[in-house]
Specification:
The chain is α+β, with helices and mostly antiparallel strands and 331 residues long. The protein contains four helices and 21 strands.
Length: 331
């Protein structure tokens, strides 16, 4: 990628800093990283319950979350309160998703992505290479006086982020993804929150457990690590993003095994996924499509009898760039 004029200006400005100014800049970055580590830790180590609202464009969704932590264990229940009913139950690394309208339960043994109010706990130390991290003033969210944090991307391969954090607990109360002009693409924010209160066992039980046990389909994913000689290669890398996982996901689909390959890449904050699966119906070689939903961008293409899907909260050019570089080894 050619260096942009903006990047050159940043380089010149940094080169012109005095030692004192450079020291102050490092201190600001370090403080920001410490806040981010507190966010990642708090979401895993604290017990809390509350209601939060997700907004993306004209779409919004309200959810209730109950999270219990203690003795090295984690239990969590996430329930969508409007629109199509969904419920996600997590016991440590086992995640069960209840879909009442489909009379279906999907069970996976491990979950890669940490959702709101969590952050990925690995790779935070390198964020300053790709984001300018700033701490701001205090603003109220859900009755809490929160510390504000801004992450401004140093290149065009990622979006900016804004966080509102409870200083007492370190828990993330509000998060926004913003574009290059500061426009909000996606937001999540608590409207009601209780931190540290005891979580009664019934608050964590699945609402649909009894019905699911008797009448629903239960689809359990069989996950296995991909070998290094998997036939797919990624030729168009994104700076700062590294591979977190490479898995084969297999489901039993009415007596037949349906499988897909799944990779997750992250820079420590933003992440995107690659899914590759055999076509179930004939499509034209090279057929492509692209879709944007708020901060989420999705690229699809057909190659050699397979469908390739790349999706994540990255700018459209980043998703297109990476998707275009996926190919078969030796071809």
């Amino acid at each position: 990628m050619r260096p942009s004029a903006f990047a050159c200006c940043i380089w010149l400005a940094v080169g012109a800093f005095s030692p004192l100014a450079r020291g102050q800049a490092v201190a600001i970055q370090t403080e920001g990283l410490q806040w981010l580590q507190r966010i990642a830790d708090a979401a895993e180590l604290l017990s809390y319950s509350g209601i939060f609202v997700y907004r993306s464009g004209n779409r919004s969704e309200t959810s209730r979350i109950v999270h219990q932590a203690g003795q090295g264990r984690q239990n969590e229940k996430l329930e969508v309160l409007d629109g199509s009913p969904r419920e996600v139950i997590r016991h440590d690394d086992e995640v069960s998703c209840y879909l009442p309208e489909n009379r279906l339960v999907i069970i996976e043994q491990r979950s890669v992505r940490r959702n709101f109010p969590g952050l990925l706990a690995n790779g935070l130390g390198n964020l300053h290479d790709h984001y300018l991290i700033r701490t701001g003033g205090t603003e109220r969210v859900a009755g809490f006086d929160c510390q504000t944090i801004r992450l401004e991307p140093r290149d065009g391969w990622r979006y900016g982020h804004r966080f509102w954090v409870d200083p007492a607990s370190g828990l993330l109360l509000k998060a926004e993804i913003v574009d290059a002009n500061g426009g909000v693409l996606e937001s999540m924010a608590f409207t009601d929150l209780h931190i540290g209160a005891p979580i009664p066992p019934e608050a964590l039980k699945p609402r649909y457990e009894a019905a699911a046990r008797e009448k629903w389909r239960i689809r359990r994913a069989k996950l296995s690590d991909l070998r290094e000689d998997a036939p797919w290669v990624f030729r168009s890398e994104l700076p700062g993003f590294r591979k977190l996982t490479a898995l084969r996901r297999a489901f039993d689909n009415e007596g037949k095994e349906a499988a897909m390959l799944h990779w997750v890449f992250s820079d420590g904050l933003a992440a995107f996924s690659v899914f590759i699966s055999p076509l179930t119906a004939p499509q034209e070689q090279g057929e492509e499509s692209f879709r944007t939903m708020g901060a989420l961008n999705i690229a699809k293409r057909v190659l050699g009898g397979y469908q390739i899907v790349v999706m994540g909260d990255l700018p459209p050019d980043a998703i297109r760039h990476f998707a275009a570089g996926i190919g078969m080894r030796g071809k």
